[in-house]
Amino acid sequence: MPPSRRERHRLECDRSDRVAGSLARPRSCGDRHGRQRQDHGPGAGDAAEAAGCDDRGRGALAARRRPIPAACGVQPGMSNRRTVFLVCPYGQIGGGMGSIMDYLASQQHDPLDRFDLKRLESRGGGHIAFSPLFLAAAVGRIVLEAMRGRLAVVHLNLAERGSVYRKAVLLAVAKLSGGRVLLHLHAAQIVQFHASVGPARRMLMRWMFHAADHCVVLGEVWRRWVADTFDIRANRISVIYNGVPATAPRPRTVPRDGRFRLLFVGNLLERKGVKDLLQAFATPSLRSRNIELTMAGGGPVEQCRALAQQLGIADRLRFTGWVSQEAARDLMVNADALILPAYDEGLPLVILEALASATPVICTPVGSIPEVLADHETALFVSPGDVSGIAAAIVELIDQPATGRRIAAAGSALYERLFTMEAFARSIGSLYATLAPRDASPGAPAWPPVREARDNRQR
Predict the structure, then answer these.
(1) What percent of the residues of the chain are helix, what percent strand, and what percent coil, each to the nearest 5?
(2) Pseudo-torsion of CA 21, 24, 29, 33, nearest 10°?
(3) What residue spans carry the Basic and acidic residues bias annotation (predicted)?
(4) pTM of the model
(5) What is the pLDDT of residues 8-41, one digit of tens each?
(6) CA 177 to CA 123: how far, in whole Å?
(7) Which residues fall within 8 angstroms of residue 389, CB to CB, at 6 or more apart?
(8) What count of Cα atoms within 13 Å lies in the side-chain half-sphere of residue 70?
(9) CB 337, CB 395: distance < 8 Å
(10) 116-125, 192-201, 308-317, 423-432: least confident range
């Protein structure tokens, strides 16, 4: 009896795999991992073992395989690397969360270079009414990548409010599709949000932190809160500080004419301390000073402009609206100090970018900031809402330029020690390598994966 069509198709797939196997040049897993340890130290080698030596061996064959029918799981021309989705809003709406994922996607060194990092928009930059369309598209991309056998990790970047519900949907889809999930908490107001919602939404948040394979937070304060609030074991939470690229040397384009130039970068929201900053600018101690404030960010710009007019300081303020990362760096080069008098923060990228560019910082000790900065050493601290304190800190930098230079130098050294993009990428990449399924390779079907993921987490 001749074989059925399905049987003939299976035999063809088997023959293709045997041909690919005959083309392979044998290479031991021990050799590969030994070289990685020599080049990158024990951590890199351990991460490679966590990812599984079989993944690398199979991945090396993909480029040499003859074309295989699409139904067998491998598409012609498919990349050797498995996919990591970087999920968050991008562009203006994404803020620092989108910026750091943009930075991460551009990194190519080990262990990130063994994965194909893809940006995945979860909300869209337009009106919130269009958000479900972007969410549906994100669901489709995750499912499609899983059906191709290429899905490794879904990196979900979590804020508060609507972000919780969108990421809950994507987390469920990722787990059902066989991907590992890294839940990365960025929300500055997650504590207040959790306290303000009812039992059902608290249970949803608890489920998210338990369903994720691993959690990343921006500091010890957030690690303790997640562990205590959701009863998460310590070995499932990593503290990874944000990182930013080094600032390339660039010339100052504004002449030093004796005017002190202060810079604010961020959305012009009340929680960022914008109103307090404008009121500080109107105090008598600053009215007589040769000083200019540039406010770079989106949000209620016209309301802030109207308040500046009302306070009589509009002639010393400049509103740029939202600016790109490159434009923000240009503004930083020409600034004498960065100021961020916020009420709530995680670990703001703009502060790290100021450290990288050796620009002195005035900020509030909120979120993870006091874990990494010290008052009058690497920054000047002011209390949230302290208008007179904000004015006094600005006056101190104007009257004592040596203080600003000392703080800037210490901040630059701190950046090199803790906040480089390379350090951040290595830490995140090692988690990807640990979380990625040991037995998955390009073209290997990922379904049904849920029991395996659950068993691995219990081990």
Answers:
(1) 55, 15, 30
(2) -140
(3) 9-18, 28-40
(4) 0.76
(5) 555 555 544 443 443 333 333 334 333 333 343 3
(6) 21
(7) 382, 383
(8) 3
(9) no
(10) 116-125
